[in-house]
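Narrative summary of target 7.
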Amino acid sequence: RGLLEVLYDIFRLPLPVVTEEFIEALLSVDPGRFQDSWRLSDGFVAAEAKTILPHRARSRPDLMDNYLALILSAFIRNGLLEGLVEVITNSDDQISVRATILLGELLHMVSISTSHHLFHT
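Modeled conformation, tokenized:
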């Protein structure tokens, strides 16, 4: 469990709640879900917009995206995806749910970084 939390932290992903219910864990990391920082009295519009809307400066390279793509590439070359599949198939339900969400998020990151480099070079 601790290693999964470190991987979520490395890739700057929100940590899902600990549960055996996949849908509940998935909803807990949904960027469009209502968050406490969206209260009207606490800068609702700005906090919601920062979470939901894409960054305005998408025309220039984002060094954090480049860093994450490099780290992700290194982890994939060293068997991260295979290791996550092993954890998913051989662990208890709570760990398996978190590993499944992490695998999905990482595959999504791969598709975004690949499409960005294919169409913006």
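Residues 69 and 109 are 8 Å apart (CA to CA).
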